[in-house]
Specification:
single chain; 320 residues; alpha/beta; Rossmann fold; five-stranded parallel beta sheet; two-stranded antiparallel sheet; 7 strands; globular; binds magnesium ion
Length: 320
């Protein structure tokens, strides 16, 4: 079966594309947190969005037979918090190319499915487009491409490139005298790339208070623990020594993430480095903190179990 995908949010209409199977139900488009909502309502909105993203993303990976669901689940809460509340960004600003919008760079581009699904829950791309993930001629590639989706700010995938790009966009804003901010999401294994440390040094030197780097500190990389491969610790001390403010938070706690991002731009004049303590595969029991789920594809039975666990957790949240 082929269906023409609505072009919303895509740079051009890709035309008829073979579609993946439909999910059990299509993702709810929640959009930004309501204006004037109190903190509890904001957190509840973000929790609902993360739930929607995870239950849709796990089905996408199963249906496509490809993806990085473990690392996608570990950054879901960070992405949702940024796109649906923290950043000065909206689908309208993206469509109009508003130069003053905040920027986000997903340096760990292999987690593209999480980004696309957050863009769908936020109203940036049509939910139906998720059914084209990694299909021939799709705009939703295995790594994000800025020439294909308007909300994507940088092509990423080769690790160690996102932070240098983000430093460049932050320098541009500084030169322009603009208040726009740049957020960049890094994998922790990715920090073994030397280019990150050049970028950290430059950002500290230039006092890029409009820049916020978030490291998805799930302690796992492609095939092993980060600590067993090329250890990063003491990470906070190292980054502080490069002239950054460092904040450590539970990367699955939306309220804690809101507090961390509320400090950007930092009054200190320094860039902000958020160490988001996460678990690969969070919160699904058979995935969480297992390195195999870097690139593993869930079976139909595992999808069913994941959905049941996510539904149960969401029900528990609503009862609180
Ligand atoms: Mg990692």
């Amino acid at each position: 079966m082929t269906v023409t995908v609505p072009p919303l949010g895509l740079v051009h209409d890709p035309g008829p594309i073979p579609l993946l199977p439909a999910p059990d139900r299509e993702i709810a488009v929640l959009g930004r947190t309501p204006v004037g909502a109190d903190r509890d309502a904001v957190v509840a909105h973000l929790a609902q969005a993360s739930y929607e993203v995870r239950r849709r993303a796990v089905q996408t990976v199963h249906d496509a037979g490809l993806g990085h669901i473990g690392g996608e689940f570990s950054i879901t809460d960070v992405l949702v918090t940024l796109y649906l509340h923290v950043m000065n960004i909206s689908p309208e600003q993206v469509a109009e190319g508003d130069p003053e919008r905040d920027r986000v760079v997903l340096s760990k581009g292999h987690a593209a499915n999480a980004l696309y699904t957050v863009l769908a829950v936020g109203g940036y791309i049509a939910p139906e487009a998720l059914r084209t993930f990694m299909q021939p001629e799709s705009m939703l590639n295995g790594h994000p491409a800025r020439g294909k989706i308007r909300a994507v700010e940088a092509n990423t995938g080769p690790l160690g490139h996102g932070l240098p790009i983000a430093v460049g966009t932050a320098v541009a804003a500084q030169i322009d005298g603009s208040p726009r901010r740049t957020f960049v999401l890094l994998g922790d294994g990715e920090l073994q790339e030397g280019s990150n440390w050049e970028a950290l040094m430059t950002a500290g030197h230039r006092g890029l208070s409009n820049l916020c780097a978030v490291v998805d500190r799930n302690r796992l990389q492609q095939g092993a623990r980060v600590a067993d491969t090329n250890d990063l610790e003491p990470l906070a001390d190292k980054v502080r020594a490069f002239g950054w403010d460092v904040v450590e938070v539970d990367g699955h706690d939306h309220a804690a993430l809101l507090d961390a991002f509320a400090g950007v731009p930092a009054a200190s004049g320094r860039p902000t480095f958020v160490i988001a303590r996460t678990d690969k595969g969070h919160p699904v029991s058979y995935m969480r903190d297992h390195v195999a789920w870097h690139h593993k594809v869930p079976s139909a039975e595992q999808v069913t179990q994941a959905l049941a666990e996510l539904d149960a957790l969401a029900g528990g949240q609503e009862e609180k």
